[in-house]
Design brief:
Layout lengths: L13 E8 L8 E8 L1 H11 L16 E6 L5 H8 L3 E10 L6 E9 L2 E9 L1 H8 L12 H12 L3
Antiparallel strand pairs: 1-2, 2-6, 3-4, 4-5, 5-6
């Protein structure tokens, strides 16, 4: 059954994301369909698909935990745009895997109708701590355009 994906903090069942690579003007977008499935269905799908699909590089012991910190501006524009169903929108997050700080990513997710474009840049724990303290200056000197654009968002949109 197709359904909206609940926040992982509240979801009682596993989520399955199906991705298809697509090409939208200018950027490689992909199309995702999200479904809520039971643990039983998850086990069946895992068994049936494992011969043809490779596991994600973060998998340890059959799975992994993702923790994300989402950013929004003073007016909660990202939340309001999602809630209103705005077709073109973006959001920023910092993500870690398996409670570890050796692989931290700043990510931006852009949505264009049903198509999604994701990009990321590495961060260190010290850089994340600086961001949380409101010290964004290091971002403007990053070799990653995403970090430089996030800097502009932080200082102009009162994140």
């Amino acid at each position: 059954m197709k359904n909206k994906l609940l926040s992982p903090l509240w979801a009682k069942s596993q989520s399955l994301t199906w991705q298809e690579d697509s090409q939208a003007p200018g950027e490689p977008y992909r199309h995702e369909n999200k479904y809520l499935i039971s643990y039983h269905d998850q086990d069946n799908l895992r068994r049936r698909l494992s011969p043809v699909l490779a596991l994600d590089k973060h998998v340890k012991g059959g799975g992994y935990t993702i923790r994300s910190l989402y950013f929004d501006d003073y007016w909660q524009s990202a939340y309001e745009e999602k809630d209103a169903g705005v077709l073109m929108r973006k959001k920023y997050r910092i993500r870690i895997y398996n409670y570890q700080d050796h692989y931290i990513r700043l990510e931006r997710k852009k949505k264009f109708g049903a198509y999604i474009y994701k990009e990321s840049a590495p961060l260190t724990r010290a850089q994340v701590e600086d961001i949380l303290l409101g010290n964004y200056d290091f971002l403007k000197h990053s070799p990653h355009s995403l970090a430089r654009e996030f800097y502009i968002e932080c200082v102009t949109n009162m994140m």
